[in-house]
Amino acid sequence: MNAHRFASGLLAFWMCCIAVSACARDCAPRVREGWVRLTPGGMPMHAGFGRIENSCASPVTIVATSSPSYGSVELHESRIVGGVSRMRAVPELRIAPEDVAVLKPGGLHLMLMQPKATLKPGSKIVIEFELASGGKLLGEFEVRKPAL
User: Fold this and answer.
1) How far apart are CA 72 and CA 147, in angstroms?
2) What is the distance between the alpha carbons of residues 106 and 89, in angstroms, rounded to a whole number?
3) Is-contact 69 119, C-beta < 8 A?
4) How confident is the model over 48-72, as pLDDT tens digits?
5) Does 3 have pLDDT greater than 90?
6) Would you say 103 and 50 are in contact if contact means Cβ atoms under 8 Å apart?
7) Which of 8, 60, 102, 108 has its CA 20 to 30 A from that of 50?
8) Residue 102 parent element (H or E)
9) Any alpha helices (H) in the chain, and if so which ranges?
10) Which residues are bridge partners to 70 per DSSP?
């Protein structure tokens, strides 16, 4: 129970940092509707989805991703090529002014590898997006049950 309280307190602290950081600048992109799909059988790899909204007048470029909850986080894209689904790493993601990047199953998504602890549906994790400008964007993602 103490570990749960500590994790909740840490998450609240990070979310306060996000709010202060966003207020300190005129404009910042935002992560919305973030969620993580657990895999059946406890595989050490999960997928992350959501929306990254850029309401700013200039583009933003995500150049790296990380999370204290995972050993590795990568941006990937799935596409059908010659009738076969193929997945590739996306080294950077540019989001145009007043545009949205949608992370969804079967398309652009986060590959979350090597979870550092057992995640349960309903828990929340933080994912950090490093921007080409040197800034950072933090997003909260809710853990959901695997699709059956």
Assistant:
1) 22
2) 14
3) yes
4) 999 999 999 999 999 999 999 999 9
5) no
6) yes
7) 8
8) strand 99-103
9) 2-24
10) 115
Q: Which residues have a Cβ under 8 Å from the Cβ of 71 and sit 6 or more positions away? A: 113, 114, 115, 116
Amino acid at 126: V
Token code pair at residue 78: 């799935």
- Residues 34, 139 contacting (CB under 8 angstroms): yes
- The pLDDT assigned to 86 comes to 84
125, β-bridge pairs: 141
- The tokens describing 139, both together, are 């997003």
pTM passes above 0.90: no
Structural domains in the chain, CATH included, are: 2-144 (2.60.40.1890)
- Tokens representing 88 are 């590739």
Which among 66, 56, 45, 57 has a CA at the least distance from the CA of 111? 45
Count of other CB atoms within 10 angstroms of residue 125: 24
Q: Which residue has the tokens 């059956």?
A: 148
The length of the chain is: 148
Which pair of structure tokens corresponds to residue 51?
Answer: 């929306």
Burial pattern 1-39, b for ≥16 Cβ within 10 A else e, equals eeeeeebeeeeeeeeeebeeeeeeeeebbebeebebbbe
- Greatest extent of the chain over all pairs of C-alpha atoms, in Å: 52
